[in-house]
Amino acid sequence: MARLAVIPALFFVLLAAATTGGAGARDADSYGIRDALAFHPEANATSPSPAASRDDAASSSRDGGNDTDDDLDAVDVPSRRALAATPTNTLPIDPSGTRAPGSVALPASWDHRTVDASSCDGFLHVELWDTERVDVATGEYTPMPRKAHPLLAVRYGADAAPTWDAASRVWKFDASANTDADEHGFEHNRAYMHVSIDLRTCATKCSQHGNWDGGACAAACVADPLKSSLFHIGVYNFNGWATRTLRYDLKAACVASTQPPCPRPLGAAGGYCGSTMAWSRGTCGWVNGDSGRVTPKDAGSNRDDTADDYGACACNDGYGNVGCESAVTTLRHGATRIGSADRSEWALYTVDVGASSSSLVVEMTRSSGDPVMFVKPAGEFGETPSIDDFELHADVDGFRSRENFHYKRIALTTGTYYVGVYDNDLYVQETANFVVRAWWSAPTLGPLLCPANCDSPRGGTCVESGATSDRLGECRCAERRGGEHCRGELVSAGFGYVVSGKIAEGKWLYLQFEVSAEQARASMRVVFTKKGGHPTLQMKKGDFPTFLSADVVISQTQFLPEQTTFTIRPRYLSEGTHYLGVFNMGYYADGTCEFVIELVTDADEWSWMPPRLLTIAIVVVLILAACLLLAVCKRCVERNRERERRGEAVTMFGFPRTM
C-alpha cells in the first residue's frame, strides 16, 4: 500500500504541470498595454547612455515601467512650501546699468542682491542672462542639452520667497508680498529673463499720457509706488531636469521713458527687440497697442496689470519669440519645410491663417531624434510654445505612440500660430530631423483636410465627415489598406496561414483573421520570426490596434530573438474579427524588418473542452488506468500465493506451470 500512496502525489505533480506554461514560450498575459511615454523637457544629468535610454523605453511595457506624465513632477523641489533663502548680498547693483556677474552652484538655492531705486521716476528694469547659453556682448546663443533653469524675482523690502506647486507646476506668490517674477521666462526656461516695475508717480504718469477722460487718470492712480526701501533681487537655480551650476549676468537700470522697456535677450548690443542688430529684428511698443492708460493699483502695492509694466516686441519677418531672438520660418500653405532641432532645443515656425475663419492642419514627419510638435496661437507678448504647453498644444498621441508621423488639427480659427518642434532628448539622444507642412481651408470653399491626405493615392481618399462645414474630413481606406490615415498594409489571414514580407521603418502591417466560437475557447499561438528593425506586436478585436490602444500588447521590446512563440490566452479571444498589428518602430533601432508570421490555434476535435481541463482529464484517465493495472497485479499475486499453499506449481501470473 505504501507504493500506492505515491499515486496521489503523482497526480498533483502532473496537475501542477498541466496548469502552468512550459518553458521557452512567452505568454502574452504578461505583456500589459504599454504605459504612455513621458514627456520630459530635459533629461536628468544622471540619465543613462543613449543606448540604455532606448532600451529602457522599449522594454518598459513588460518590466512594469510607469512612464507617465506624473514623472514630470519627480524632481527634487519643495512642493507647496516656501523655498529656503540664503543671506542677502548687500552690494547693490548699479542702477545705471552695469552688469554684475554671479552664480548659483547649488540646486534649489537662491542668490540675493539689492538695489536702491528710490530716485527712479521711470521703470526699474532688472535683466538676467544665462552666460553659459548666451554671450551678452555679441548676442550669440549656444545650444545646450543640459541647462540650468533660473527664476528671476524682484520683491520690495524683503527677499523673494515664492512657493513651487509641483502638482500644477506653477509658482505661488503671496499677493501682499510685492513680488514680481518672470514666470513666462521660467516656463520656457529662457536664457534671458527680465522684470519691469513701473515706479513713476501718479503725477508723472498722468502728465505723460494725458489726464484722460476728464481726470480719470488721477482717479485711477490712487497711490504712488513704494520705493523708499531697497528692492531685493532673487536668482533661483531650479533643481529640475538637470543639476547644473547657474552662471549669469545681472543688470538693473532705471529706464526714464514714457513707454515700458521691452526685452533684450541679445544683450545691450542687440538692443530692445534686437532693434540695433545689423539687420533689425523688431521694434518695441505697447502691448495690444495700449498707449499708456493707467490701471488702478492696490494701495501700498507696486503691482498692477503687467501690460502697463512691460513693453511688447513687434518682430520682423524671420524672427519671433518675446525679444525677437529666435529665428522663425514662415510656413506657406501646402509647402513642406525641412527642419532640424538640436538636443533639448526648438525649431520655430509661424503660420498665418488670415482674418477669415479657416481650419488648419499642421503635419510633421520625423526621420531622427525624438521631436515633439506644438501648435499654439501667438499671445499678446508673442510667446512661442513652451515645455509646459505639452498637454494643451502638443501632438501628445503622436509623441507617445512613437510614430514618425505627427499632426495637429484645429477647426475654424483665425490669426497667427506658432509651430514649435522640440527635441525631447530623453529616450533618443540625437539631433531631431523632420519635415513640416501646414495647410488650411476656408469653410464650404476650400478642399477637405485629412492628415497625410490619407496616404493618397495608394492609401485612401479624404471624404466628408459629419461636420462638413469645418472642412475637416476623414479617411476612407482602399482595399488592402488600413489603420490611422490608411497608412498600413492589410493582409487577410487565418489559423494555419504563414505570412511573410518586409515592413519599412515607421510603417504598419495588419493581419485580419476570424476567430470562431470554438477557437475562442482555446489558446492561440503567434510564431514570429524576424530579422532587423524593431517590430512591436499588438492585437485588438474589431479595430486596428495602435501602440497606445490594444486588447493585448504582445511585445514591444527591441531585443526579440530571431524566432519567438507567443501564447494568447482565451481571455483575450472572442468570436469575431481580430487584427494583429506589427509596427516597425524607428526610434530605438533602425532599418527594415523582414518577418514571417504563423497563426496557430490549439482548438481541435477536443475543442469543446478547454485545454487545461482537457489536460487534467487525460491525466485522470492515465491515473485510473494505472490504478486498474496495479489492482490486476495485486490480484495475480494473491492468486499465486493461494495456489502455492495448495502445492500447485504456478507462474508469476497465476497460470499452472507445465512440466
TrEMBL record:
Extent of Low complexity compositional bias: 47-63
Keyword Transmembrane helix applies: yes
Stretch list, region Disordered: 42-100
Cleavable signal peptide: 1-25
InterPro entries hit by this protein: EGF (IPR000742)
Keyword list, A-Z: Membrane, Signal, Transmembrane, Transmembrane helix
Domain spans labelled EGF-like: 475-486
Membrane in keyword set: yes
Regions crossing the membrane: 613-633
Protein name: Predicted protein
Organism (species): Micromonas pusilla (strain CCMP1545)
